[in-house]
Amino acid sequence: QLLSIYYLLYQRAGTERDEIRGEIDKALKGLQRITTKLQASIDQHKVYQKTIHDAKVTVKKNDRAYEEEVKKRDTERTDIASNKLKLAALTNERERIQHDIERLNAEFE
């Protein structure tokens, strides 16, 4: 009878061991799913970081290009203002010469 009790305990221990192994397997599968999701999140985060980095680089390039365009615009505005002054001076000079020509023509008549 002791042997049958021992046998029943042995069977029960085996059943419990199998149940524990089943629970461990479930836990491992759950951990594997979590690990897979975590790795996917890490990969996604790396993609986001790369996208943000690329965007920052693009913004810096655009800022530099904008600053260059502003410099060109300012240079062109300065050139236009200078040319307007030259044109005004030439117009005044032409009017003075025209006046001198008219005066000289009047003197020689």
Give the amount of beta strand, in percent. under 5%
Structural class: mainly alpha
What's the total helix number?
A: 1
The ordered H/E elements are H
Overall form: rod-shaped
Textual characterization of the structure:
- This protein is mostly helical and 109 residues long.
- It is 98% helix and 0% strand.
- It contains one helix and no strands.
- The longest helix has 107 residues.
Task: Give a quick summary of the entry.
This protein has 109 residues and is mainly α. Helices cover 98% and strands 0% of the residues.
Pick out its properties.
109 residues; mainly alpha; 1 helix; 98% helix; single chain; 0% strand
Any chance you could write out the topology, listing elements then pairs?
Layout: H1 2-108
